Amino acid sequence: MYFRVIDEQFNTLTSFLDEDLLDDEQWYSQQGSTLSLTISKEMSGSEFVIEDNMIAFVDEARKNNLFTIMSISAEDEHTRTIECESFDTALIGDIANSYVSNKPQTIDYYLNRELYNTVWEIRLNELPHKTALPDCSGTGNTKKSRIFAIAESFEAELDFVIEFNNSKLKRAYIDIYQQRGTDLSNSVVLRTGDDVETIHKTTDIYTTFTEVKVLGSNADISSIKYDDGIYYTTDGSNIIYNREAKTDRGGKKVMGYYSSSSATPSTIFAEGLSYLKDNDEVKVNYEVSVIRGMDDYQVFDYVKIIDNEYNPAIRVKARVLEKTISRTDPSKNKAVFGNFVTLASGISARLKSLQKQLDEIEARYSVKLLSDNGTGFIDGVSKTTTLTATVYRENEEITDTLSNLDFFWYKVDKNGVHDTNWEQNAYGKGKMVSVSDLDLEDIAKITCRVNVHKNKWVQAIYFINGLKALAYRVEQLRTEDTLIVPVITDTHYATDVMNKEDIRGNLMVFDHLKNFVEFTNMVECDFVLHNGDFVDGRTTKKENVKNIGEFIGLFGQVDCPYFIALGNHDDNRYGNRASGNVMNQVIYPQEMYQNQ
């Protein structure tokens, strides 16, 4: 990414790339953006990266960004950290003049009063005919706060857009939307473990009401009778009630207050009802630490969030309220979501019931890591620490019941790249690994995954250990774009065989197939594929149907969807090898489907 440093006359003073940054953090919100950068003072042109100059760049969404350097928050002999505010925030941060409007006007009327004598102009207005009467009589308000208060009165959302001609500011626009953003919930899905590292949930009941009392000299709704089953009024009262909110709060009443300046009872009531509807549910927000995909959505967009491991499970459509991006340290990336809509899971009641039964039977496992010498390392200081993994089944420690090959250690840098040499050396060490300063050149995350595997099919320990080593290798190679698809082919299973070698071969086929099935229970696979000739055929039709059933009975135990291609042996088209009778022994497609 290319950054330009410019002065107040938009003359370019110097430029640098994101790879020149030592640290950075950009915070996006619905009312502006901030930027923090740390640079080396040895960088060419660093003397221009100071207060009152500006930084211009095009972000990942191809939107022009212009920031004013507001302060130097930290500086020493070698580095300088600056704090910046987006151009719209800094430019319209002047004190707004107080004025009173006597009648409702359109939104452009109020905004143009605030934008007078600035470079900003209204470009797009989706609410050209809507009128309202915002309160602009306050003193001490900044133009920024006044502008967003006006937008809130109109239930509008604003976007600030700048255009450059080379290094010069060409235009500065304000776009007025009824609602900004795009509904991406069908295309952008954030899943824990894939796109999301952690989810923190916060709730707020302090601004949650079960009823609202309308205040004001002209606020009289006592004659309005209303009851839609949820919201209702009572005779002679200026209070609007919500039955469900009261029930949800255990019968507790929480009063809110709304002040209206209207003289029309119907308008007063509509305003009060709208206020109650906006504040009668517990406020829930999620702060999400994002692993990847931050460029796929912007503030105001809607996405889908799924975390089936949360209790209760999270499956919601949510709006992006804030977004933090670091181009030097992706571990800082996070987003805050609100405006939640709970999504149906799409799982039948029968499946949910079965899952609940399984959950009651299936034990919960956890792994705890402890270090004997801290987890921080300092350049040039020799240090070694030992990490120890302790495994619990429910509250019972089971570490010593596992083999050394059940512990999978991973070392991943800040860009998500595995240190495969380190991981290979750690494999087989068991519950303890040593980490020294020589192992770390940059920020890295070391984790341990334990394979508590309940062997169902494979009896030989040689095969089990081999499968565990293969599972570890597959997990090392897994990325966000990886499909895990085990493939097997030409098993040629048959029981009507001609000699001892064929008998031995078919026993080996079933052992090999058991290994294949067991692997899918060790590693989360997307699907498996058999490329055909799963049975050998060349027998009687009855015998071949029996062989197909036996093969499918075992192959169908894979822990994922499976697909089988039809080979030239599978439909028994060669007939019984003993009699040479061909056509009357063929298994036709419909019969094949029935057997599978």
Brief characterization of the structure:
The protein is α+β, with helices and mostly antiparallel strands. Helices cover 21% and strands 32% of the residues.
N- and C-termini, Cα separation: 55 Å
- Biggest beta sheet summary: 13 strands, mixed
- Quick one: how many beta strands? 31
Helix content: 10-25%
Residue runs with pLDDT of under 50 for 5 or more positions: none
Estimate the mean pLDDT confidence. Answer: 82
Please characterize this protein's 3D structure:
21% of the residues lie in helices and 32% in strands. The protein is an alpha+beta fold and 596 residues long. Strands 1, 2, 3, 4, 5, 6, 7, 13, 14, 19, 20, 21 and 22 form a 13-stranded mixed sheet that branches. A four-stranded mixed sheet has the order 16-17-15-18. Strands 23, 24, 25 and 27 form a four-stranded antiparallel sheet that branches. Strand 24 and strand 25 form a beta hairpin. The protein is globular and about 105 Å long. The model has no long low-confidence stretch (mean pLDDT 82).
List the helices and strands and how they pair.
Blueprint: E1 2-6, E2 12-17, E3 23-29, E4 32-40, E5 54-58, E6 64-75, E7 79-86, H1 87-91, E8 105-106, H2 107-115, E9 120-125, E10 131-132, H3 143-153, E11 157-165, E12 168-177, E13 189-191, E14 196-204, E15 211-215, E16 231-233, E17 239-242, H4 243-248, E18 255-259, H5 265-278, E19 283-290, E20 302-307, E21 314-325, E22 334-342, H6 349-361, E23 365-371, E24 384-393, E25 396-397, E26 407-413, H7 420-426, E27 432-436, E28 444-450, H8 461-477, E29 487-488, H9 500-522, E30 528-530, H10 541-555, E31 562-564, H11 589-595
Parallel strand pairs: 9-12, 13-20, 15-18, 29-30, 30-31
Antiparallel strand pairs: 1-2, 1-5, 3-4, 3-21, 4-7, 5-6, 6-7, 8-10, 11-12, 14-19, 15-17, 16-17, 19-22, 20-21, 21-22, 23-24, 24-25, 24-27, 26-28
Helix pairs in contact: 2-3, 8-9
